[in-house]
Design brief:
Layout lengths: L12 E6 L3 E2 L5 E2 L4 E6 L8 E5 L16 E3 L2 E3 L4 E7 L4 E9 L2 E10 L3 E3 L4 E3 L5 E5 L10 H10 L4 E4 L3 E3 L8 E7 L8 H15 L2 E6 L3 E3 L4 H4 L14 H18 L15 H19 L9 H14 L30 H11 L6 H42 L21 E3 L9 H8 L7 E7 L23 E8 L10 H17 L2 E4 L7 H14 L4 E4 L6 H11 L3 E5 L6 H11 L2 E2 L8 E3 L7 E4 L8 H4 L5 H9 L4 E5 L21 E2 L9 E2 L6 H16 L4 E6 L4 E7 L6 E7 L18 E2 L3 E13 L26 E9 L7 E4 L2 E4 L6 E8 L2 H13 L2 H8 L4 H8 L3 H8 L5 E2 L3 E2 L5 H13 L6 H8 L2 H10 L6 H14 L7 H22 L3 H4 L3 H7 L1 H5 E2 L20 E3 L5 E3 L3 E2 L2 E2 L11 H13 L4 H13 L23 H15 L10 E3 L16 E3 H14 ...
Parallel strand pairs: 1-4, 1-26, 2-10, 3-10, 13-14, 13-28, 14-17, 17-22, 22-23, 23-24, 24-27, 25-31, 27-28, 29-30
Antiparallel strand pairs: 4-8, 5-6, 5-9, 7-8, 9-10, 11-12, 15-16, 18-21, 19-20, 20-21, 31-32, 32-33, 33-39, 34-38, 35-36, 35-39, 37-38, 40-41, 42-45, 43-44, 46-61, 47-48, 49-50, 50-51, 52-57, 53-54, 55-56, 58-59, 59-60
C-alpha cells in the first residue's frame, strides 16, 4: 500500500472550561505534547479562583505522586481581558485537576494522556489504533526455553502485541488467575527469573516488533498462598469481618448437605447424587427451607433477648434519672447488632427506650405500663428482623437452586454429572486456609466461631451480577454472602485492603512489589476483574507501575453496564483501552454497529482546528473477535464466520485483538482453569501434525494479511470508518483517509450460523458502486472445506483433543490471494464504477483500495488555493462594513428586503438565523466540533448544491460583495468535482475560511481597542456589523451635500436605484430590522457610543448624528425615524441620548469637536410646515443642538400629526398630546401625561379582555430620573466646551406669561439640577434623614433613588427601577457618593439578575418577571405583555449599572471588589454570546434569566453598553 507522506502537524491545543462540578465521569483524552488551556466558566468569573493539577511539572520528576498537586498560575492578559492557564502534557497517565473558588473546592475533573508505544530496534511509534494483540496462557507455553517457538505463531500471524495472563506461580486449581505467589514465576517455566522473562519480552520487541502486556490480579489470591497463614488479616476473615459469620454458618449447612447428597443420604427421599430434574431441585428446596435452615436458626444472631433487655430497662427506670437525648440523628428505637454476632446478644439504646416508653408515653409514673410497652416494642423489632433475615435466606435458597440448575440441567451449562467433593452442590463461600481439605460439621463450624482459628476462615472472591462496581460487596452492610448472590471463585480468597496502605501494610507492600515487577518486565498491564477492584487500590498500584514504566499501556475489561461508571474507572485509573467483544453481537448488523461505534471517526469528517474545545470522548477500545475467557466462536457461531468477523474487527479504527487458538480453529474454549496442555509451535513448513502450526493452519495466512492491513491503516492515518449493511449477512467496512481521500473497502460475508452443506449463493448480492479509481484488489480470502466431496459448507468433523497439545479442528482450507487486478478476482467483476459480486459465498472477504480520481485531487488543491488566507484577504479587504453586513448577516426580513427571498431552509432542521455566513457558520461550528456528519445540514449538502448556490448568488447582487461571490462560485465549481460524501467537509472548510476572513477584516477596520481586546470584546464589536448595514426600507435621510468629507457616496442598490451608501443602525434583530420599525432614536444613540465610536466607526457615528439632526422637529429627535418623512415625535428621551452621544463623540473621536460645525440639512425647519427635501435650509449641528435646549426651556407642547388609528391603534386620544419642558424650581426636564409613555419604558396596553387598551403600563411622566441625569451631563459638557471656545452658545432664555424674561446659562442650569437632585430623588434609609415628603406613605423601599419626580401617579415616583443607574453613570456629579453606594447595593441585590436588570422591584404589587405578548388573558398585569417593563430583565441597563458600580466603588476604595463583581457579571454575557447562534446579546430575558422567545435575539444597545463597560474596566485596570 502506498504510504501517505508525513506532514508536520501544528501544535494541538485543547481548551477546557473549568466548571463548578465533578466531571470524573467525562473522559478527556489527549496525546502527549498536547497543550491544555484551562479557562474559567461563567460562574467562576469575578471570584478568587485557583487551579491545582497533579500532572508533573517536568518529565524528569522522579515519580508521580497522585496526591501532590501543583498550583497552576493564571495568565492574565489585561489588554484582552482573557484569563487562562496552559499546561503541556509531558507524561502519560491519568491526571486530576481541581478548582478552589474563594478558598473552597468547587469543581474537579480528569484528563488522560495516551502512552507512546515503541516497537522494533528503531523504536518506531506504534499508534494505539494499530495494535493487533493476541492472548496467551503462559501455563500453556511450557518451559521458557520453548516460548519463542510458540510465541512466534503470533509474530507470523501479524500481531504486534501479546497479552499474557499472569506469569506468576499459580494455586492448586491451576487457574490462570489464582496466583499463590505474586513474587515468584510459575515453576512450569523452569529454573528462571523475571530477568529471563524480561529478556524474551525485549527480544520480541526488538526482533519482531511485538510488545507484551500481562494481567495483574489485585482482588484475590489463591487459597494456597503461604502468607495467608501468617497474615490472615489480608483477607475477610471471621474476626475482622464478623458480619460474615451468619453467611459462614449457612455455607457450612450447604457444604454438609452437598456431602450428604454425594453419599446418597437422601436417595430414598428422591434426591440422588446425580441431579438432573426439577423434581430433584424441589427436594433440595424443601430440605433447606423446612429442615436444615430452621434447625440452624441463623436469625438468632440478629435478635435481642427480650427478657434480658426488659430487666435492664427496669433497672434503668429505677435509677430515676431522666436521660438527655437532644439532637438525636435517629429518634427511632432500632436493634443494635451485636458486633460479634452472638445469638440473642443484639441490643437497643436503653436510654432512648426509657425516654420513649417511661418518660414520654407514661409521663414518668407508670413503670409497669412502660415495661409492657417496651416489651411489645421489642417483640415487634424482633419480628421485623426475623422477617428480614427470612427474606435473605429465601433469596439464598433460590440462588443456590439457580446455580444447581445451571450447572446440572441447563443446555448452556456444563451439565455436571454427579455431586462430588470436586463438583459440590454449591461451591464454598469460605475457606479455612490452615485446614484446606478438612470437612466440618455444623457443630464444629459453630465452635470454630468462638476460637482463635476463626482468623483463618476467609471469604472467597467472586462476581456479583448487576452490583454497583464501586461498592465492596464483602464489607459490612452488604448481604451478598448471606443471600448467596456471589458467583464464587472457590479457589481464591478475596483480599481486604482497607482504605490505605497503613490499614494492612504487609498486603499493600506485597502487591506493590508485584505490580512493579510486572511493569518492569512487560510494556503494559491488563487489569483482571477491574470492575470489582477497589478503585483507590488500583490507583495506588498503577501509580507505582507507571513510576517504573511511564508509558504504560493499561487495558481493562469492565462489566458495569454503565458508560458513566466505565468512564470513572477509565479516568481514575488511566485505562488506555477498554476491551470490547465482537462476540457480544447477535448478528452482523450489531457487529457492524460495534465496529462503527468503537472503530474511528465517521467518513467525511470535518477538518478540525488545532486549537479547539476539549470534547468528551468514549474510552479507547481494544476490540477482540474472541477474548480468552469466552467460548469459541466456532461453537457459538460457525467456523465459516471466523474469517469474516476477524476481517470486520481488523477494519475497526482502534486497537484489535484475538485469542490464541481461534486463528488455528481450536473448536472449544481453552479453559482458564482446566486447560493443562501446551500450545503448538510455529513451523515454516506446511505440515499438519500435532504440536505444529504453519501458515496453512486455520486462517493464519489471512490473519497475517488482516493484521498487516490494520497496522498500516492506523499508522498512516486512515482514521475514518463507514459501515454499510449490504444485506443481512454481508457487511462492507470502509476506512477512509481524511486528507488523501484514499479508501480501503473490505466486504465480508458473515456466517453466524452454518449455511447448510449444499448452500451456494447465486447472485442477489447488492452491487457496490464507488467514486474514484479502483487501484487493485488488496486481497481476497475464503474458507472452504479441504475435501470438496463433503459439500460446500460442511460442519466440522468429529473432534478429538490431543493429550499434549492444544489442537485444532481439521478439514478446512483458507485460500488467500493478495495484490492483483480486479479482473483476476474469483468473487467480483468490475463494470465501470460498480463492483458486481459473482461468486461471493459465506466465509469470504475481499478488500479493495480505491483512490480518488485525479480530478478530485486537483479540485481539492484548487479549493485550498481559492480559500487560502492571502487570496481571501485580497478579495475581502476592499469590502466596506455595509458589504460585510450583507456577507455575514441579514435576518429574515432584511434578506427579503435585500434579495426578495428569505432564509435558507434545511429540511428536518429549519432555517438559519441569518442569510449570511454567520447563519451557516453558527450551525456548522457545532456540527464540526461533534463531527456530526448525520446532521440534516450534511444530508442537504450531500443531496445537492442548493446551499452553496444560495450562498454565492446573494453576494453577486451588489458590487461590493460581488468579487467574493465570484470566488465562492469558483469554489462551487470545484465542489462539483468532489464526491458527494465529502461535500460537507469542504463546504464547511470554505465557509469557515471565508467567514473567519470576513470577521478578521471587520476587526482590522475597527479601533485598536477592539483589535487588542478579548474574544468577548471582538464578539460584541461585531454587533456593529450585525445591526448597522444598508437598508432599502429603513435608510437614514440623505446628508447635506455641503458636508465636509468624509461623506457617504451614492451607489446603485439591488433594485437599481441610487442610494446613499450609508448604513443605518437597527434597534434589534429580527423584530426591529426593516421599515419604520428599524430606526429608533433612543436605541440608536444609546447604542452609538459602544457600537460605532468605541469600534472606531467614526464616520458612521457622525452620519447618524447628523442624519437625526436633520429631522429635528418641535425641538425633539424622533422616536421612530421612518426615513424622516414619516417620523414620530412621541418620546422625550431620544433627544437627550442624542445629545449625550454627541458629547461622547466629541470627547473620544480625534478632532471630534469638528462635528459641531458640520452642516445639517433641515427637513423640518418649520414645525408645522412641509418637508424640505432639497437641502435648501441648512444649519450647523451646534445650532440644531442649541435649538433642542432652547425649545425645552421654552416648553414644548403639540399634538402628533395624524393622531388616531393611522399612527397608533391602541393609544387614547389624550396620549397624542406631547408636552416637555423645564421645571424652573429644580431645573429638571419634565414632560408626558398619564396617557402616553415618552421614555424607553413605552409599553402601551392593547388588551380588551383585560381592559388595558390605551393605558400606558409605565407612563413615567413628570421628571424621569435618567433624563434629569442625561440633561445634567450634557449641560455640564456644553458649558465646559463653551468656556473653551468650542461651542458657540452659552445660555437659554424664555419669556413668562407676564412678559418677564428668564435667562439661564448652561452652567447655571446644570448647577440648579445638581442642587436639587439629591433632595428630590434620594429616599434615605433613616426616615429622620429624609427631606419633608408629603407622600412618604408611598415609600415601598428606602435607600434608593426615585424613578421620577412629580409623576401624575405619585406612587410611580417611589418605585425601584434601574433607570437611576443611567443617571448615575452619565452624571455622577449629581450623586452623594455614600448614598450612591447604598443604592448600588440595592440594585445589586434586588434588580440584578442573570443577564439583565429587573425592570421593577419584585416586591412591587405590579411586578411580573415573565413577558408574553401573546397572553390574551384578562389579567391586567400581563395581558398582551403589559408587564414588558414591569419585571422582565432587560440587558442594556446592566451596562450603566456596572459603569456606575465601577466609578463609585473605586471612589469608595473598593476597586478590587468592584472589578471582580463586574467580571463575574459580564462573564455570563460572554457565555450567552458564545452559545447563541445569533452571536449577540438579546433584548431581554424572563424571570431569573430564562429565555424570552418574544424578544429580539440581538439587541444593539445590549451589546453596545457592554462594550462601554469593558472599556471602562480596561482603563481602570490599566491604571492600577
Amino acid at each position: 500500500m502506498e504510504k501517505t507522506p508525513a506532514k508536520e502537524q501544528p501544535q494541538q491545543i485543547r481548551v477546557i472550561q473549568l466548571e463548578e462540578r465533578n466531571t470524573e465521569d467525562v473522559v478527556y483524552r489527549v496525546e502527549k505534547g498536547t497543550i491544555l488551556k484551562f479557562r474559567l466558566s461563567t460562574p467562576l468569573h469575578g471570584h478568587a479562583v485557583e487551579l491545582f493539577c497533579n500532572h508533573p511539572t517536568s518529565p524528569l520528576e522522579e515519580s508521580f505522586a497522585r496526591e501532590t498537586y501543583h498550583k497552576v498560575d493564571w495568565v492574565v492578559h489585561k489588554e484582552n481581558e482573557e484569563t487562562f492557564t496552559s499546561l503541556t502534557t509531558l507524561v502519560s497517565g491519568c491526571f486530576q485537576f481541581y478548582v478552589l473558588k474563594d478558598g473552597k473546592k468547587s469543581g474537579r475533573g480528569y484528563f488522560l494522556v495516551d502512552p507512546v508505544l515503541r516497537i522494533g530496534s528503531n523504536d518506531e511509534v506504534l499508534a494505539l489504533d494499530s495494535i493487533c494483540c493476541q492472548s496467551f496462557f503462559p501455563k500453556s507455553l511450557g518451559p521458557l526455553s520453548e516460548w519463542k517457538g510458540r510465541l512466534e505463531v503470533a509474530h507470523q500471524s501479524g500481531y504486534n502485541m501479546i497479552h499474557f495472563t499472569p506469569v506468576q506461580e499459580l494455586g492448586k486449581s491451576n487457574s490462570s488467575y489464582s496466583i499463590s505467589n505474586q513474587l515468584a514465576l510459575n515453576p512450569i517455566f523452569g529454573n528462571v527469573k523475571f530477568d529471563d522473562v524480561q529478556k524474551v519480552v525485549n527480544d520480541m520487541k526488538q526482533e519482531w516488533g511485538v510488545l507484551s502486556i500481562c494481567d495483574v490480579v489485585f482482588n484475590h489470591t489463591a487459597n494456597e498462598t503461604p502468607w495467608l497463614k501468617t497474615n490472615p488479616e489480608s483477607g475477610y476473615n471471621l474476626v475482622n469481618s464478623p458480619h460474615l459469620r451468619p453467611a459462614y454458618l449457612l455455607d457450612s449447612v450447604l457444604s454438609e448437605l452437598s456431602r450428604d447428597i454425594s453419599q446418597e443420604k437422601y436417595a430414598e427421599r428422591g434426591l440422588p447424587s446425580k441431579i438432573n430434574s426439577e423434581d430433584h431441585l424441589n427436594v433440595i428446596r424443601a430440605l433447606l427451607k423446612d429442615e436444615l435452615l430452621p434447625n440452624l436458626k441463623i436469625q438468632e444472631v440478629f435478635l435481642v433477648n427480650v427478657d434480658e433487655l426488659v430487666d435492664n430497662f427496669s433497672k434503668l427506670v429505677d435509677a430515676g434519672q431522666k436521660p438527655n437525648l437532644e439532637n438525636l440523628d435517629d429518634p427511632d428505637l432500632k436493634i443494635i447488632q451485636d458486633p460479634t454476632y452472638r445469638r440473642f446478644k443484639s441490643t437497643v439504646d436503653l436510654n432512648l427506650a426509657v425516654k420513649m416508653h417511661f418518660w414520654e408515653k407514661h409521663g414518668g409514673h407508670d413503670k409497669n405500663g412502660a415495661i409492657e410497652s417496651f416489651r411489645h416494642h421489642l417483640y415487634r423489632l424482633n419480628e421485623n428482623m426475623y422477617n428480614l433475615v427470612q427474606s435473605h435466606l429465601h433469596a439464598a435458597v433460590e440462588n443456590v437452586i439457580a446455580g444447581v440448575r445451571y450447572e446440572r440441567l441447563q443446555h448452556d451449562g456444563p451439565k455436571l454429572p454427579q455431586v462430588t467433593d470436586k463438583d459440590p452442590l454449591s461451591h464454598r463461600y469460605f475457606v479455612n486456609v490452615v485446614a484446606l481439605e478438612e470437612h466440618q460439621s455444623i457443630a464444629q463450624a459453630e465452635k470454630l466461631l468462638a476460637s482463635e482459628d476463626a482468623h483463618f476462615v476467609l471469604a472467597h472472591n467472586g462476581w456479583v451480577i448487576g452490583d454497583d462496581p464501586l461498592r465492596n460487596f464483602a464489607e459490612a452492610g452488604s448481604n451478598i454472602y448471606l443471600r448467596r448472590e456471589l458467583i464464587v471463585w472457590s479457589d481464591s480468597v478475596k483480599l481486604r485492603f482497607g482504605p490505605g496502605p497503613s490499614y494492612c501494610p504487609f498486603l499493600w507492600d506485597v502487591m506493590k512489589k508485584y505490580v512493579e515487577t510486572t511493569a518492569t518486565v512487560f510494556h503494559g498491564l491488563r487489569l483482571d476483574n477491574c470492575h470489582s477492584t477497589p478503585i483507590h487500590l488500583a490507583e495506588y498500584l498503577l501509580d507505582a507501575a507507571r513510576n517504573v514504566r511511564p508509558d504504560l499501556f493499561v487495558v481493562a475489561e469492565l462489566f458495569t453496564n454503565s458508560d458513566r461508571t466505565d468512564n470513572i474507572f477509565v479516568n481514575r485509573l488511566g485505562i488506555t483501552s477498554l476491551i470490547r467483544e465482537a462476540m457480544s453481537a447477535g448478528d452482523s448488523h450489531e457487529q457492524g454497529r460495534l465496529v462503527y461505534r468503537y472503530g474511528g471517526l465517521p467518513v467525511g469528517t470535518f477538518v478540525q482546528e488545532p486549537v479547539r474545545p476539549m470534547m468528551p470522548s468514549i474510552a479507547h477500545a481494544l476490540m477482540m473477535d474472541q477474548t480468552h475467557d469466552n467460548p469459541s466462536p466456532i461453537t457459538k457461531r460457525s467456523v465459516y464466520d471466523v474469517l469474516p468477523t476477524a476481517a470486520m474487527v481488523s477494519m475497526a479504527g482502534c486497537a484489535t485483538g484475538s485469542n490464541r487458538g481461534l486463528d488455528e480453529f481450536v473448536p472449544h474454549h481453552i479453559h482458564v482453569v482446566h486447560e493443562s496442555r501446551f500450545y503448538s509451535s510455529w513451523s515454516s513448513e506446511d505440515s499438519v501434525k500435532a504440536g505444529v502450526v504453519s501458515k496453512k493452519s486455520g486462517i493464519i495466512s489471512a490473519k497475517k494479511v488482516l493484521n498487516k492491513l490494520h497496522m498500516k491503516l492506523g499508522q498512516e492515518g486512515f482514521s475514518e470508518v463507514f459501515v454499510d449493511q449490504m444485506d443481512y449477512d454481508i457487511v462492507a467496512v470502509t476506512r477512509h483517509h481524511p486528507t488523501t481521500h484514499a479508501r480501503i473497502v473490505l466486504v465480508t460475508y458473515t456466517a453466524f450460523s452454518y449455511p447448510g452443506c449444499d448452500f451456494h449463493r447465486t447472485g442477489n448480492v447488492k452491487d457496490l458502486a464507488f467514486e474514484g479509481v479502483l487501484e487493485d484488489v488488496l486481497f481476497e480470502a475464503r474458507l472452504k472445506p479441504s475435501d470438496p466431496g463433503r459439500g460446500n459448507f460442511p460442519t466440522p468433523s468429529a473432534f478429538e483433543k490431543d493429550g499434549t497439545f492444544i489442537n485444532a479442528v481439521q478439514g478446512f482450507e483458507c485460500v488467500v490471494k493478495e495484490n492483483f487486478p480486479v479482473g483476476e478476482s474469483k468473487f467480483v467483476k468490475l463494470e465501470g464504477n460498480t463492483i458486481k459480486f459473482v461468486n461471493f459465498q459465506p466465509g469470504s472477504v475481499i478488500a479493495f483500495r480505491i483512490n480518488p480520481p485525479s480530478s478530485v485531487t486537483e479540485a481539492v488543491v484548487a479549493l485550498r488555493e481559492l480559500i487560502c488566507k492571502d487570496h481571501l484577504k485580497q478579495t475581502i479587504a476592499p469590502m466596506t462594513f455595509n458589504d460585510l453586513n450583507t456577507t455575514l448577516y441579514k435576518c429574515e426580513e432584511e434578506e427579503k428586503n435585500f434579495s426578495g427571498f428569505g432564509l435558507y431552509n434545511i429540511p428536518n432542521f429549519g432555517t438559519f438565523v441569518y442569510a449570511g455566513l454567520q447563519g451557516i457558520h453558527s450551525t456548522l461550528a457545532d456540527v464540526r466540533l461533534r463531527n456530526d456528519t448525520g446532521h440534516p445540514i450534511c444530508d442537504n449538502l450531500r443531496a445537492g448544491d442548493w446551499l452553496m448556490e444560495y450562498t454565492y448568488s446573494r453576494l453577486l447582487k451588489t458590487e461590493g460583495t460581488k468579487p467574493l461571490g465570484i470566488l465562492m462560485q469558483k469554489c462551487a465549481d470545484e465542489m462539483h468535482k468532489i464526491p458527494r460524501y465529502l461535500v460537507p467537509r469542504y463546504f464547511d472548510l470554505i465557509i469557515r475560511n471565508v467567514y473567519l476572513s470576513c470577521i478578521d477584516e471587520a476587526w482590522n477596520k475597527m479601533s485598536p481597542f477592539v483589535q487588542n481586546s478579548s474574544p468577548f470584546v471582538k464578539a460584541l464589536s461585531l454587533g456593529s456589523v450585525q445591526c448597522c448595514g444598508l437598508s432599502l426600507s429603513g435608510p437614514l435621510p440623505n446628508l447635506s451635500p455641503n458636508l465636509v468629507g468624509p461623506k457617504p457616496s451614492m451607489i446603485k442598490s439591488v433594485d437599481g436605484h441610487e442610494v446613499q451608501d450609508c448604513g443605518s443602525l437597527c434597534a434589534g434583530l429580527p423584530h426591529f430590522s426593516t421599515g419604520y420599525m428599524r430606526n429608533w432614536g433612543r436605541d440608536t444613540f444609546i447604542s452609538l457610543p459602544g457600537l460605532l465610536i468605541l469600534t472606531g466607526r467614526h464616520a458612521d457615528a457622525r452620519n447618524h448624528i447628523l442624519a437625526y439632526a436633520s429631522v429635528l422637529r418641535h425641538g425633539l429627535i424622533p422616536n421612530l425615524l421612518d426615513r424622516g418623512t414619516n417620523s414620530r415625535y412621541n418620546c422625550r428621551d431620544a433627544t437627550w441620548f442624542w445629545l449625550q452621544a454627541i458629547k461622547i463623540y466629541v470627547e473620544n473621536v480625534p478632532f471630534g469637536e469638528g462635528i459641531l460645525k458640520d452642516r445639517v440639512s433641515r427637513m423640518w425647519p418649520n414645525d408645522f410646515g412641509g418637508a424640505v427635501l432639497d437641502h435648501s435650509v441648512e444649519q450647523s449641528l451646534e445650532d440644531v443642538m442649541h435649538e433642542t435646549l432652547q425649545r425645552h426651556f421654552e416648553g414644548i407642547s403639540f399634538r402628533e400629526r395624524n393622531a388616531g388609528n393611522r399612527i397608533d391603534g391602541h393609544m387614547q386620544d389624550e396620549g397624542f398630546n406631547v408636552v416637555a419642558g423645564v421645571d424652573l424650581e429644580t431645573g429638571f426636564v419634565y414632560g408626558g401625561n398619564a396617557f402616553n409613555c415618552g421614555t424607553w419604558m413605552d409599553k402601551m396596553g392593547s388588551s380588551d379582555n383585560a381592559g388595558v387598551r390605551g393605558v400606558p403600563a409605565t407612563p413615567r411622566d413628570g421628571s424621569a430620573v435618567e433624563l434629569v441625569g442625561l440633561s445634567a451631563s450634557v449641560l455640564k459638557f456644553l458649558a465646559e466646551i463653551h468656556s473653551a471656545g468650542k461651542y458657540s452658545h452659552s445660555s437659554v432664555q424664555r419669556t413668562d406669561a407676564d412678559g418677564k424674561t428668564i435667562t439661564w446659562t448652561l452652567s447655571e442650569w446644570n448647577s440648579k439640577i445638581q442642587k436639587n437632585f439629591e433632595s428630590k430623588f434620594w429616599i434615605a434609609e433613616n426616615p429622620s434623614d429624609r427631606c419633608h415628603d408629603p407622600h412618604e406613605n408611598l415609600i415601598n423601599r428606602s435607600g434608593i433613588y426615585k424613578d421620577s419626580y412629580r409623576a401624575s401617579s405619585r406612587f410611580c415616583d417611589y418605585q425601584l427601577r434601574p433607570n437611576f443607574l443611567i443617571a448615575m453613570a452619565v452624571a455622577p456629579h449629581l450623586f452623594t457618593p455614600s448614598n450612591a453606594i447604598i443604592a448600588l447595593g440595592k440594585a445589586k441585590s434586588i434588580l440584578l439578575s442573570e443577564l439583565g436588570m429587573r425592570t421593577l422591584d419584585p416586591s412591587d404589587w405590579n411586578y411580573d418577571g415573565n413577558y408574553d405578548n401573546s397572553n390574551d388573558s384578562a389579567d391586567r398585569k400581563v395581558a398582551h405583555g403589559f408587564n414588558y417593563h414591569n419585571g422582565p430583565e432587560w440587558l442594556w441597563p446592566v451596562g450603566f449599572y456596572l459603569r456606575a458600580y465601577l466609578k463609585f466603588c473605586t471612589q469608595n476604595g473598593q476597586k478590587s471588589d468592584a472589578i471582580r463583581h463586574v467580571r463575574r457579571v459580564i462573564s455570563k454575557h460572554w457565555r450567552y454570546v458564545q452559545a447563541s447562534p445569533w452571536k449577540g446579546l438579546p433584548e431581554l430575558t424572563n424571570l431569573d434569566g430564562a429565555e424570552c422567545w418574544g424578544s429580539c435575539r440581538v439587541q444593539a444597545w445590549s451589546m453596545a453598553t457592554m462594550l462601554e463597560v469593558i472599556k471602562d474596566l480596561t482603563e481602570l485596570e490599566k491604571h492600577s
